[in-house]
Please model this.
Amino acid sequence: MRRLVRLLLMVSFASLLVPFPALAGPPFLTDDPEPVEYKHWEIYLASLSAEQHGVSMTAPHVEINYGVAPNFQLHLIAPMEYVKPSGQPSHYGYGDTELGVKWRFFNNEETKFMAGTFPFLEVPTGDESKGLGNGHPQVFLPLWLQKGWGPWLTYGGGGYWFNPGEGHKDFWYFGWLLQREINKYFTLGAEIFYQTPRQTDDEHHFGFNVGSIINITENHHILLSAGTDMVGPTSFYSYIAYQLTFGPEEGKGSGEAHLTNEVYRMSEGRVR
Model:
């Protein structure tokens, strides 16, 4: 109950500051199959945090997505990490680098249904001895589905994380999200997610997030989300980001923020 009260207080406070918006991927943990438009860019300056037996956060991380070809997107996350385990010293430094390629292999514009995959490679560039990295390469193989109708959009799916190393376990992540476009400036969304234990001493995670995007202009956006485990050890998740989007004018869409990630995507595997 204390977790829920804390989350609702934060969301209520945020709604006093800005109208609530959103769209797909960041600021949520669950991703979508829609890639960045061809020859377009998304650049995020963001921070993702989690409270679980201490505090872990990116402070900040840079995420870059580029539409390298129709239906294909390249992805990079370069994080600075801060960790403060309960009863232990804090550490700050560069964390693990995330690389990925999103491929939308099915798209029916008439029914607004699409499917795709977005595999990640977590490169162990962080110092494992300080809790800034995993110590071994990680690979995520997901399947994402999406359906739209009117101002509504729903998407989700899941995948399997290969997570080698002593004390580590391979694990599953599943999530689903529903969102509604309020107007061209903001959208509101909420997700539920489930993750199996990623370490031998970890627990199952079943939780939710609520989030929004504020489209300040066609190219400048603010992303926010907050959530908690309903079952599991994480008492609080949060995400905040500034997003810059740009690309050729020809064929350009509405210009609203396209939420690709986590997330946290960083998300599923990023906060340790």
Q: What stands out?
A: The chain has two helices and 14 strands. The longest strand covers residues 54-69. The domain at 2-270 is CATH 2.40.160.40 (Porin). Residues 39 and 61 are 23 Å apart (CA to CA).
